[in-house]
Design brief:
heterodimer; A: 416 residues; alpha/beta; Aconitase, domain 3; 5-stranded parallel β-sheet; 18 strands; 31% helix; 18% strand; B: 169 residues; Aconitase, domain 4; 8 helices; 7 strands; 33% helix
Chain lengths: 416, 169
């Protein structure tokens, strides 16, 4: 009974829980990466107790991998030594942690997965509770297998209508960020539903919980339905049967209704994710870099959209166009199907997988005075390098159109 | 007693400590760069006991604990803000950085005011202006963690289940 988050927490607690209660719950998986694991190891060592269950720990190298400098290399070394010492079975270096978590079948409807990364909300796309925590709590969970949660109130976002060609989940989510603001859902669970969501494939659904972080949400959730089950069966090694469930007689703090039918492409402008404008208002703005990557929009389907639009064409020669596939599995599929060749022929630079330029460590850092249009989820000042650089966020299609002209460009004139 | 350093609304973790410095977890090393892009004079001039006065949604952005660690490493006594971003709130509690919620104090305290904070009672005194403010009380289990100096210290002496005793509500 209740909202999706009340449903998920009630199932786990074995009793009916309501918003406002504080719970200590068992967690199914505990995720961390090269940026956050060293601090978790430090907390773990200080606590001085053994790991409760190695099978629940999943570690990734993705934020600065392969290492771009000696300090990152030392982090990687420290983590690998820890994996060896503790004989941890789940260790990955094949792409962005959240994508790999989904691809490898760790995320199931009803699961509780905590991650030392703010975009752990992503797992809500499969009806799981995913939330970002700090490294110390990850170290605590290694030892205890538990984490405390306050059951959050829920904001329901009811999305109706069918989006126009050239308008994607990213445009809709950027629009929502503009509408609610960057603290519009602080501490809240945000439930995304309605006929628009029901008809979306999983790769597009993922964008919503992923970016629920940007409006302050504790988690972003989509109910587990037949799309979820089909995705888990066909795209992951996860073993069923898979639960399907949604909210039951929910009480929402707030319901926001949005008809996406007339929505044009959107851009989140420098310097805040809620500084959102319809693309036409910023069209023509020159960019120095187009970055297609990250846990938000570097899945196979995103790369396919870009490749289709760039096929047989050349990107603007003065614009750096960088494509970072979210995972090796995506990279291999794109290679097998000829997409990587199309991108390279068009003048894109295709990098290894991982978080890449999104956190300003390597793979596309911006200089002072530069402007980038990216498929990322956040555009904080200084995130991609120089604090004097500007970051604009948009869909992969907008990124592809912008790559061709070197200026922010409406994708609707370029759809293949 | 210390000096107040004031900051605006929606201060994000990149503004507290830019991602490129998070290759270390040494509090003193991180403290050298804390607020470097928005208040470069802070790291040079901050003194032990100074107080960070922030706007609403303080610490939004990434899950990086480097942000509260950098502030704690700078010897600031505590943070006062009307509200905190969710993960920053948890992280600060977990690493033992005292954080107080007090919109009245934030509205009244100016940069450079002399401020005294009594963490146990939540009483904040603005010595420069002669005003006092009362911070919102923290939930019981949060106090348990804060009093232990962070969750790691708490777990050295206790089981995690003890956190929730008498903490329902």
């Amino acid at each position: 009974m209740g909202t999706l988050i009340e449903e998920i927490f009630s199932r786990k607690a074995g009793r009916s829980v309501r918003a406002g209660e504080i719970l200590l719950l068992d967690v199914d998986y505990i995720m961390s990466h090269d940026n956050t694991t060293p601090l978790a190891i430090k907390a773990f060592r200080e606590i001085g107790k053994p790991i409760l269950d190695k099978n629940r720990i999943v570690l990734h190298l993705d934020h600065a991998y392969p290492a771009p400098n000696v300090l990152a290399a030392e982090n990687h070394k420290k983590i690998i030594e820890f994996v060896k010492e503790q004989e941890l079975p789940h260790f990955y270096k094949q792409g962005v942690c959240h994508q790999v978590m989904i691809e490898e079948g760790y995320i199931m409807p009803g699961a509780i997965v905590i991650g030392a990364d703010s975009h752990s909300n992503t797992y809500g796309a499969l009806g799981a509770f995913g939330a970002g925590l700090g490294s110390t709590e990850i170290g605590v969970a290694w030892v205890t297998g538990k984490c405390w949660f306050k059951v959050p109130e829920t904001i329901r976002i009811e999305l109706t209508g069918k989006s126009q060609p050239g308008v994607y989940a990213k445009d809709v989510m950027i629009y929502i960020a503009g509408l609610l603001g960057m603290d519009g859902a602080t501490y809240r669970s945000v439930e995304f539903g309605g006929e628009y969501i029901e008809n979306l494939p999983m790769n597009e659904r993922i964008v919503f919980p992923n970016m629920s972080t940007e409006i302050g949400a504790k988690c972003g959730l989509i109910e587990a339905d037949s799309v979820t089950t089909r995705f888990l069966e066909s795209d992951t090694p996860a073993q069923g049967p898979f639960e399907t469930f949604g909210p039951v007689n929910p009480r929402y703090e707030r319901v926001v209704e949005i008809d996406v039918s007339e929505l044009p492409p959107q851009v989140a402008c420098h310097p805040d994710v809620d500084h959102v404008k319809p693309l036409e208002e910023v069209a023509g703005l020159e960019v120095n870099e187009v970055y297609i990557g990250t846990c938000t929009n570097a899945r196979y389907e995103d790369i396919e959209i870009v490749a289709r639009m760039l096929k047989g064409k050349k990107v603007n020669p003065l614009t750096r166009v960088i494509v970072t596939p979210a995972s090796e599995r995506i990279y291999k599929k794109a290679m097998k199907n000829g997409l990587i060749e199309i991108l390279m022929e068009a003048g894109c630079t295709v990098t290894g997988t991982g978080c890449g330029a999104c956190i300003g460590r390597h793979g596309g850092i911006l200089a002072a005075g530069e402007r980038a249009l990216t498929t990322m989820n956040r555009n904080f000042i200084g995130r991609m390098g120089s604090p004097q650089a500007e970051i604009y966020l948009a869909s992969p299609a907008t990124a592809a159109a912008t790559a061709l002209t070197g200026r922010i460009t409406d994708p609707r004139g370029y759809l293949a | 007693m210390g000096k107040a350093w004031t900051f605006g609304e929606n201060l994000n973790t990149d503004e507290i400590i830019p991602g490129r410095f998070n290759i270390t977890i040494d509090p003193l090393e991180l403290a050298k760069h804390v607020f470097c892009e928005i208040k470069p004079e802070y790291a040079k001039n901050v003194k032990s006991g100074d107080v960070i006065v922030g706007g609403q949604n303080f610490g939004c952005g990434s899950s990086r604990e480097h942000a509260p660690i950098a502030i704690k490493g700078s010897q600031a006594r505590c943070v006062i803000a009307p509200s905190y971003a969710r993960i920053f709130f948890r992280n600060a509690i977990n690493i033992g950085l005292p954080i107080l919620e007090c919109p009245e104090a934030v509205a009244d305290i100016d940069e450079g005011n002399e401020v005294n904070v009594d963490l146990a009672s939540g009483q904040i005194t603005n010595i420069t202006k002669g005003h006092t403010y009362k911070a919102r009380a923290l939930p019981d289990f949060v106090l348990k963690i804060a009093e232990a100096g962070g969750i790691v210290n708490f777990l050295k002496e206790h089981d995690i289940e003890e956190l929730m005793m008498n903490a329902e509500g």
